[in-house]
Design goal:
The chain is an alpha+beta fold. It contains nine helices and twelve strands. It is elongated, with a radius of gyration of 27 Å. It starts with 5 loop residues before the first strand and ends in a 17-residue tail after the last helix.
């Protein structure tokens, strides 16, 4: 049985996330609809990969229940339509109870055994009374899940300043920590408004471009540092590691040179490369 087991990725339209499942069905291929069981219950998804080797993870990899059929697709479409009204009802009932909740979405499991409501709130919400009201309306299990602004942007999606679909909605599965130091590494003006995405937090692209900029800057002096170039003292006032040039200024004039010339001909304090473990506190 283990020899025939293969692993594939399945994406769920409602959350736009991809997870790994196992199967012994050789007829399942990339692009096929499938029915699987997740932590939330029975769900309908789409295969988005060819078979691959077993991933090195300790978590249990659940098997695909079966390929999706026309009846599953009709049920999935019905659930999507009904979820719109369910979201509206949940928002109305939370408003009636004076709960400070912004309901973002509602999602039925494929078998309609459970419905999950996601919401934004500034503080913790006591929704015990709301659960009773919703259970009496929908006659199924109710799950209320609080999410952050980044999760909302991923679910709603939109167009970023680059003109493309938001990275969080298009391909980012899990959110990494993003800091203002990443903007500094990329020599960007520290304008929080321009560095923030539609979620109001620092843009995700700062994170997955950070390693490249660190590598490009590893042998270069810092901004505003003093250098000696062709017998004169200058201050580095701008640097573009992508275009590979920089601007040097002193009281008399300013010059533009390549980063290659700066490294070869310029005299400055070279960045210190610490050995692993150096500087640690016992």
């Amino acid at each position: 049985m283990e020899e025939n087991l293969k692993y594939i990725s399945v994406r769920f339209e409602t959350t736009n996330k991809t997870y790994t499942f196992s199967t012994t069905d050789d007829s399942i291929k990339n692009g096929d609809p499938v029915v699987v069981e997740t932590q939330r219950g029975m769900e309908y998804g789409t295969v988005v990969s060819d078979p691959f080797e077993k991933p090195n993870v300790s978590l249990e990899i659940k098997p695909i229940i079966r390929k999706g059929n026309d009846r599953d697709k009709k049920q999935f479409d019905r659930n999507k339509n009904d979820s719109v009204q369910a979201k509206r009802i949940c928002q109305e009932e939370s408003d009636n109870l004076n709960l400070n909740m912004n309901v973002i979405s509602a999602e039925y499991t494929l078998d309609r055994a459970k419905i999950t409501f996601t919401y934004l709130a500034d503080d913790r919400v006591d929704f015990r009374e709301l659960l009773k009201v919703l259970a009496s309306i929908f006659h199924c299990r109710i799950d209320l899940r609080q999410v952050g602004t980044r999760d909302k942007a991923k679910m709603v999606s939109g167009i970023g300043v680059c003109g493309r679909e938001l990275c969080c909605a298009r391909f980012i599965g899990d959110f990494d920590r993003i800091s203002i130091n990443m903007a500094k590494n990329q020599l960007l003006a520290l304008n929080i408004q321009k560095l923030s995405g539609q979620c109001g937090n620092l843009m995700c692209c700062l994170r997955f471009e950070d390693d490249v900029y660190k590598d490009l800057r590893k042998d270069l002096p810092k901004m505003n540092s003093q250098v000696e170039y062709e017998g004169e003292r200058y201050r580095i006032t701008s640097m573009n590691v992508i275009a590979k040039n920089c601007k040097l200024e002193n009281a008399d004039h300013a010059i533009f040179i390549s980063l290659e010339d700066l490294v070869k001909k310029g005299k400055y304090n070279k960045p210190v490369k610490k050995e692993k473990g150096e500087g640690s506190v016992a």
